Amino acid sequence: MPADAAVPPARRPRARACSAAAALALAAGLGAGAAAPAAAGPPPEVRFATFNASLNRAAPGELTEDLATPGDPQAAAVAEIVQRVRPEVLLVNEFDYVPPADPGDPTSSPPVAGFLENYLGVSQDGADPIDYPYAFIAPSNTGVPSGFDLNDNGSVGGPDDALGFGFFPGQFGMLVLSQHPIDTDAVRTFQDFRWADMPGARLPDDPATPEPADWYSPEELAVLPLSSKSHWDVPVLVDGRTPVHVLASHPTPPVFDGPEDRNGLRNADEIRFWADYVLPSRSRYVYDDDGGRGGLEPGDAFVIMGDLNSDPFDGDSLPGAAQQVLESPRVNARTVPDSDGAVEATALQGGANLTHEGDPAHDTADFADGTPGNLRVDYVLPSKSLRVTDSGVFWPVQADPLSRLTGTFPFPSSDHRLVWVDVRVPPAR
């Protein structure tokens, strides 16, 4: 990103809808296989972004109520950030899940509809509205009762004993928004994949017993999924033809546990899932919620996106956890999104930030200065088949008028920053 530029540079306008031929094929249920002839010219450039927008609420129904009308200041700040950056494909972490009114239309989920119509679809402080005609949502493990005492505190119930931390089912869920069609027939979810079914799973050990990896009982492992929320493979059809697999997740924070490090170990294996999934030689064990086996094919284009809750150098995650995807032979991680605002925040806030090994320009979250400090935890990682042309983190310096959208604690939008990457998408062969 150019110096002092919180907003990405404008790009040439491009069609976001599929071609007429591809649209007819999709409407007829023929999917991506009925492709229109490739258009002449350079491969299209697409902006992918991830944003842990903190659009979660304390009780069921609160997010629906907040987004049902304009005027929620946090949602307006989040929407303006999206309108300023203008990603074509956006993953929103921490967006409470509510089932759609029409099972075939994800945009009929009440909070999704409210966010699209009352916030993204309305100019926020002079920014142009932005339209996302395609969306994907699905249930999350957060807040789903396990029936077991997973934190071993002597009682069953509460957010720590849910399949994923949460006070009610669907809290801290996910949402994919796209200006390109989603190949809904090819979407795969991995909400139910069991942690114990991952070969070499880093299962936590009870330090009070001599047996290894025994924090969870066999009965608990029989129901405990790997995903604290879910893992999704959502293929978007660029120009209505070329599939790019959006690999979306939000691993659990590697903290809020004890010496067994159950959350840190789960976080590392949630990240490892995508590292295995993109390599056919390592993904044979994978099964999805419909029983399909295996991961991506060698030629599949993808973008790993989300708040992975792991910094490659600093913080509390397991050493090497983030490197599992950053160093994957199929991932293009050489271009690291950055911002001037993150560098300024380190200098102004001090504390743990001054002891960090990582480059502060790459930070994506403004955490407590005492510990852990600001970290790089949000990622947009394209496959090597996608050429990166630009990238950035929306973290304006304080002198920039748009810094009102990020601010300092208590944040007007989120303690995380939107991260974006532009890639060239070659046509499918």
From TrEMBL:
Residues 50-416 form the Endonuclease/exonuclease/phosphatase domain. Residues 1-34 form the signal peptide. The keyword Nuclease applies. Coiled coil: none annotated. Keywords: Endonuclease, Hydrolase, Nuclease, Signal. It holds the Pfam family Exo_endo_phos. It comes from the Bacteria. Transmembrane segments: none annotated. The keyword ATP-binding does not apply. InterPro entries: Endo/exonu/phosph_ase_sf, Endo/exonuclease/phosphatase. GO terms for molecular function: endonuclease activity. This is Endonuclease/exonuclease/phosphatase family protein. It comes from Aquipuribacter nitratireducens.
